[in-house]
Amino acid sequence: MSDPVAEFPRALAAYPDAAGSLWTVLAARIEAEPFNAIATGIFLLAVAHTFVAARFTRAAHELQQASDTRLAAAGLPSRPSVRAEVLHFFGEIEVVFGLWGLPLMVAIIWSRGWETAKHYVNDTVNYTEPLFVVVIMALASTRPVVALAESVLRRVAQLGRCTPAAWWCAILIVAPLLGSFITEPAAMTIAALLLARQFYDLQPSMRLRYATLGLLFVNVSIGGTLTHFAAPPVLMVARTWGWDTAFMIGHFGWRSAIAIIASTVVYVIAFRREFAALAARQPAPDLESPAEDAEEGRRLLPIPWWVTTIHLAFMAWTVANAHYPALFVAGFLFFLGFARATAAYQSMLDIKTPLLVGFFLAGLVLHGGLQGWWIAPVLSSLGETPLFWGATVLTAFNDNALITYLATLVPNLDETFKIAVVEGAVTGGGLTVIANAPNPAGQALLSRFFDGPINPLRLFLAAVIPTLMAAAVFRLL
User: Fold this and answer.
1) Which of 17, 119, 249, 385 is the S-S candidate for 253 at Cβ 3.0 to 4.6 Å?
2) How far apart are CA 235 and CA 229, in angstroms?
3) Which of 204, 205, 208, 167 is nearest to 281 (CA)?
4) What mean pLDDT is predicted for residues 442-467?
């Protein structure tokens, strides 16, 4: 007798064969497993929530202002409004998928029972990537690592006399390509922190802010394809399809480098007048000079080389053991002890932002694990070029690692089709926040420079041009 717990979610191979159009196949799968429609409906509501999050935030601010006005009229001190705080919570992009995980869990329990829900969350969903992102993001955002990255990129920016445009190009070209070696989440973290200091602090126009964010997301997504171990969508297929670093460079890496450089040059030319105006503004102070810890009001000492070296060693340990949470989490706990012992050289360790990003990704994989029933048939029904564009579009609504993973489940997939689906997945990785695992990290670190939550439509429009340029390079060269 079969175990109903072990059958959830239903394996893709367990669905009956259905002849006919794609819609016929999907209808047959819903008939065989009605819960598919419920799970996907909840997922689509979560996606829609990300597009209206800004409205919740605006409503929260209005409620808080109204509450403050009433209290001031009554001669009472201001205090947080519970209703405003609840609306503000609904407006946080990082909690959206976790929030919609609650109705998903209720639906599973109602449909299949508690044991099935517990089995799915604990035994089926893989949280390794969210955990890895939390650890590598926390390590990459430490003062010694950021200072080293800034020192290296400063040498590149000096080729353009360290103007805002020179810094902008250096960060948006070099950091994404480094993502092939230090992993995309680490590259996103370092790039976002340096863009905040060297560019966003200069208060550029909102149009240029969104253009920068969209370009950053696209460049990081395609910049991790020089190796087979750094980009999540590549990790999902490299072992199964036998791809190594030589293969990645020959088929993806050099094209990615061309696309990154070309898109960055096009954007810097398009905004050349504003970059010239930004050059007259006050640059960010040197991070290597003694700084004051904002938390404790104490002076920090210059960073010795051995502290930076040990930080890099902890990052290397994390990257090398990215598939083994017990090892990289244990390494992070040792790092916390080291950071405490060397507090004189450390600024306050940022844990809140990595945890929020990890929560976002955990919620995404919770939902994503129940979407294979429709994504796999869509991918298998397409030709090579439609498959590329289909993967690009689907990536905007699902993590691109999920798209490539499901492609490994399609039997007898031709080599050209394999390349097309990975090209499409990384090309579309900058269109939305949920398209690529490192994107939430960039949003969390840079959202303070935007008036309220980042607008998904404006981000999409900002990323369209570099996305199309990347598509042209991958498809035509």
Assistant:
1) 249
2) 6
3) 204
4) 90
Task: Give the integer Cα–Cα distance in Å for 178 and 227.
Answer: 10
CB proximity list for 192: less than 8 A, separation 6 or greater: 216, 441, 442, 445, 446
Q: Is there a contact between 166 and 159 (Cβ–Cβ < 8 Å)?
A: yes
Please report the pLDDT score of residue 376 as a whole number.
83
Q: Dihedral, CA atoms, 83, 89, 91, 95, nearest 10 degrees?
A: -160
Reported as half-sphere exposure (CB side, CA atoms, 13 A), residue 386 has a value of: 6
Residue ranges per structural domain of the chain: 19-124, 129-476
User: Rounded to whole angstroms, how far apart are CA atoms 309 and 448?
Assistant: 31
According to the model, what pLDDT value does residue 4 have?
A: 59
The confidence score (pLDDT) of residue 78 equals 83
> What is the CB neighbour count within 10 angstroms for residue 5?
16
Name the one residue in this structure whose structure tokens are 């390079």.
Answer: 473
**What pTM does this model have?**
0.80
Mean model confidence pLDDT for the chain: 88
φ, ψ of residue 5 in degrees (nearest 5): -70, -45
- Where are the alpha helices (H) located in 122-231, listed in sequence order? 128-140, 143-157, 164-182, 184-198, 206-223
Residue 15, phi-psi category: left (phi > 0), alpha (psi -120 to 50), beta (remainder): beta
Greatest alpha-carbon span in the chain:
75
Residue with tokens 């010239």, as numbered in its chain:
276
d(CA 268, CA 274): 9
Torsion angle of alpha carbons 307, 448, 128, 315, nearest 10°?
Answer: -10
